Structures are given as structure tokens and as C-alpha cells.
Amino acid sequence: MHLIEEIGIAIIFAAIFAHIARSVKQPLLLGYIVGGILLGSNIGFGLIHSEESIELISEMGLVMLLFIIGLEIRLPELAKLGPKLFILGIVQFFGCLGVGMAAFHFLGFAGNGKYDLLYLGMAGALSSTLIVVKLLYDKLEIETVAGKLTIGVLILQDVWAILFMGLQPSLSNPEPVVLLKSVGGAIGLVLVAALFSRYILNHIFKIASRSPELVLITATAWCFSVCALAHAAGLSIEMGSLIAGVTIAAYPYANDVITKLSGIRDFFVTLFFVALGMKVPVPELGTVGMALAMIGVVFAGRILIIAPTAYFSGLGLRNGLVTSINLSQISEFSLVILALGLGYAHISKEVQSFVLTAMLLASLISTYAIRYNDTLGRLLVKIFGYIGMKEKSSTPTGNEPGGSHHDSGRDIVVLGYYRIGRAFLQRLESYCPNLVSRVMVVDFNPAFKNELEKRGFAWVYGDLANPDSLLHCGIDKARFMLVTISDVFLKGTTTRRLLSRLKDINPGASHVMIADEPEDLQNLKSMGAAQVLIPGQITGEELYQWVLKQLNEEEILASAEK
Predict the structure, then answer these.
(1) Helix axes 349-371, 373-385, angle to 10 degrees
(2) What is the pLDDT of residue 468?
(3) Packed helices 349-371 and 28-39: angle between N→C axes, nearest 10 degrees
(4) What is the pLDDT at residue 550?
(5) pLDDT category, 456, cuts 50, 70, 90?
(6) Range with the lowest mean pLDDT among 256-260, 310-314, 438-442?
(7) Which residues pair with 459 in a beta bridge?
(8) pLDDT tens per residue, range 32-75
């Protein structure tokens, strides 16, 4: 069978089982892995024979995934999370790493690999960003204290994972000189990438920003350039893709790039997890038993480390317990680290197999644990009360610690800064200057950024053809959404498609649209637009009033002369 046909079959199986996973309210990731299990020769039908080729192609998805993770790591936002959260993140990682290694050694989990215990500890210390964020978002718990603590710890876990990946290539020869060389190479790569990003790449992006398509290809080229530098420096290309993402994460174009790369990433990531599923061996009672034991270690470790830390740092016992429950699974990032470790011959296949099994089972269990995290948290609060740890009355409210970057405080959003948008802002600035601080302008031309910000308006880079990228800007909380350009000027979309998506993102807002023709006005009104303006009609009415006024004045003058 041709490789293209096998890739097609892999995608078909992944889609089928992803639909099944969605129907039973399970993560799509599980569907991809199950599809791979059934395609592989270990358990499944053996329909795929080019497993190595598919795995090689799927590494592109790994690069894209890590690049996007890097884009989402905003270092200034980490600094805003506060010292208590940093303490929690540090204690959680190193505490769970130590507890995991000790427990796995005691239970005899280590296989034939030289670094099995270390990798098992890493796997047990990292939680699943994909699963946690999706479930908390569905439950509307992102903005709660426990939700913010959970997201903060997840971000810090990504940082620890990045640092570990920088050390992975040198673990095979763990001499001080080799380790220092590896660390030095990683630091050097970060410095080179950061300096290039600040003094050169920034200008390249400004030139490219007038074309959203060029922004995307420039970001992708930057990713693979840093990957090439990482490879030349003896580091992993995965490390390079993360550094590439982090160094441009603060750019105003980052959210737009994330959205546009998501489709490409999802395709290759699907193949990555299908390839992982193909590696799953025939389940043995011992493997399943070790996987269940690992889940127990992970869950117990989270509670024993996170809850007391949150309690004694003043974040609240219940918040700590709910955060522990939210984080009680094994990260898909762990699978990436284990796959790299297997390639470096650091671990045995046995370890990778039962960690993969544990991740699948933990994903299922944690889905229900997060769904009932409040009930479980209250039950555990009572249990902790018996040992003298009781909830304090000064438990922090939903506004601590840190804030959500989604809430910009700007509830008047102007989408598109062209003639109508400029005229609107000028009039608002002249007659209602107190409203300036409530306005956010979304446009893809950064030439207006400094001017608008000096006047007090907020400016955000955004491509209206991809409104999903605007979610990070806070448009989901806006009161008014004013689309100030019509189909004549929109590229890659239409006012109807744009209105439909904007209503999905923020159904409670008042949506104002610009139409070219009366027929468009009726269509947009029927779709729920609060107001639709036709510039041609408004101009015609103004012209009519002016002419009428001139004629009246002439008649008055003529009458006066008589």
C-alpha cells in the first residue's frame, strides 16, 4: 500500500474514533490513539505497514505543537501571577518529581533503561494542558481561583519540560563538561534567538504585517530556522521550536499565528498520536496493574504536595485540593519526552508502554474527577480537617492571584481601522473623550498602533478572516462589536460569515455591520445584527440634505432681493 493511502487510512480511523470519543464526552486524543491501536500490528488489524514513515511525518506535528506552546508562554504574564503561584509551581514540580521517583523505585517500576526512574518521575510531575484547559473552559471555571492556580501551574510545568528537553541529548553522557556544554548551548540559542527577534525579526514582521498570509509564513520560517540552529548546536529540534515560539510570543501577531497554524498542527499531531497508538503492545495484567499504580501515585502526589503548599501559603485549602484534582492526570507532553527518551536509548519500551496505558486510563478518570472537582474537594477538606488543616475564613476570592489576560476592560470593539472606523473614533474622541478608554481597535496594519495608543485607544493585531484569533483579545466580553468595513474591503471572508462567527464568540454583544447593498442589509438584519449601515445611502442622504439646504438658501436670497 502506498504511503499516501496509509496516511489517508490513519486519518479516517482517527476521525471515526474521535467522533466516538466526542459522543461519549472523552478527549479526542483518546480517539486518535485508539485508531492507531487498531491500525497497528500489535493489537489491531495491521493495516499500516509504513509505521516508521508515518512516525517521521508526524514529527512535523510535534514541531508545530511545541512551537504553538512556546507562542502561548508569555513571560511577562508569568511574572504577573505573583510569588505565591511561583512557589506553588516550583514545589509542585520538584515535589511530585521526587515523590514519583521514590514511589516508583519502591514499587519496582524501573525497567532496563538507565534513566527509567527519572523519566517516570517527569511523567508523573506533568499534567495534561489539553484535557485540563478544555474541561475547565467547558465548566466556566477558568476565572475561579482554583482555575487560575491550575493554569498557572500548567504554564510553569511547560517551562520545566522545556528545560528538561534541553538536557535530554546530554543525558547519555552525563559528564559535567557535557552537561555544561548542553546548558550553554541552550542558553546561547535562547540569547541568539532573543536578540535576533528583538532587533531584526521585529522589523521583518512589521513589513509582513500588511499581509496576514505573509505573517504566517514568516513565523513558520522563523520556527524552522531556530530548529536548524538547535540541531547545529547539538540540541533537539523540538527544543528549537519551543524557543522560536517563546521569543515571538509577545508580538501582537502571536495569537493570529496560533490560530492559523492550529489546522496544520492538528493534522500532524493527529498522525503523531496515531503513531503512538500503533506502538501500544498487547495489554498484560502486569502492565495494566503498573499503570493503575502509577495513576494512584500521581493522584496522591498531587494532593500531598499541592494542597499543603496552597494551605500554608494562604491560597486556601479547598483551592489547593481542587487544583490537585484538576491536575491529576499525565501530560501528552510526557509522551513527547518519553518518545524522545526512547530515541536517545534512555528508557526501555516497557516504561513507555505502561506510561501510555496510564495516560489513557488517567485521562478517562480525570475527566470525571474534574467534572465533580467541587464535590471531591469539599470531601477532602473534611478529611484534612481531621489532621488539623481546616479551611481559613480568609480564603482568596476569584480575583486572586493574577488576572486573566482575556479581560481587557475594553467593551467597545472596532473591527477594522479604515475610513469609517477612523471617522467614528475621531467623532467619539471629540464629543465623548471619556469613552476612549473603553475602545479597542482590531486591525492588521500596525502603522496605526502608536498613534492610536497615544490617543488612549487600545490596538490589537487581528485578521478578520480568522476571528477565532481574536478570542485572546477579549472580544468575548465586549458590549459593542462594530465591524467598520464591508465585503468590498474584507479579504478571505464576508460580512455574513464574519457576523455568524462573531455571534458564536459573543452572542450577548450588539453587533453593528456595514453593508454595500440594501439586500445585504436585510440578510445581516435577519442574522441578528443590531444595526446595519450602508455608506452609500448615508452619503446620498447627506448630499440630498446639503443640496436642499443650498436651494432653500438661494430661494430665500431671491425672495429678499425682490
Answers:
(1) 90
(2) 67
(3) 150
(4) 86
(5) very high
(6) 256-260
(7) 441
(8) 888 888 988 878 888 887 767 776 776 777 787 778 777 766 66
Cβ neighbors of 1 (< 8 A, separation 6 or more) are 47, 49, 50
Q: Which CATH class is domain 412-543?
A: alpha beta
- The three-class DSSP label of residue 122 is helix
Residue identified by cell 446595519 is 532
Cell readout for 59 is 514529527
| C-alpha–C-alpha distance, residues 217 and 337, integer Å | 28
Question: What dotted CATH number matches 3-385?
Answer: 1.20.1530.20
Can you list the pairs that 393-399 forms with residues at least 24 positions away whose Cβ atoms lie under 8 Å?
394/314, 395/145, 395/316, 395/317, 395/318, 395/319, 396/145, 396/314, 396/315, 396/316, 396/319, 397/145, 398/143, 398/144, 398/145
Q: Is 447 helix (H, G, I), strand (E, B) or coil?
A: helix
The proportion of the chain whose per-residue pLDDT surpasses 90, expressed as a percent, equals: 19
Task: Kindly state the helix (H) or strand (E) to which residue 512 belongs, with its residue range.
Answer: strand 510-514
Judge whether 73 and 159 are in contact, CB under 8 Å: yes
pLDDT at residue number 299: 93
The single-letter DSSP state of residue 281 is P
Q: Give how far Cα 99 sits from Cα of 150, 321, 498, Å.
A: 20, 18, 51
Q: 416, 483 in Cβ contact below 8 A?
A: yes
Q: Per-domain residue ranges for the chain?
A: 3-385, 412-543
Question: Side by side, which strands form the sheet with 412-415?
Answer: 458-461, 439-443, 412-415, 480-483, 510-514, 531-533
Cβ neighbors of 168 (< 8 A, separation 6 or more) are 236, 337, 340, 341, 344, 346
**DSSP class of 97:** H
The single residue listed with the C-alpha cell 465533580 is: 372
pLDDT value at residue 76: 65
The reported pTM is 0.60
* Closest listed residue to residue 152, CA positions, set 404, 448, 523, 356: 404
Angle value at C-alpha 254, between 253 and 259, nearest 5 degrees: 100
Residue 400 has pLDDT above 80, yes or no: no
CA–CA distance, 441 with 447 (Å, rounded to integer): 13
Q: Over the stretch 166-209, which tens digit does the pLDDT of each residue have?
A: 777 777 666 666 667 767 777 888 899 989 988 898 888 888 87
Q: Name the pLDDT band for 406 (thresholds 50, 70, 90).
A: very low
CA distance 91 to 485: 51
Q: How far apart are CA 236 and CA 230, in angstroms?
A: 6
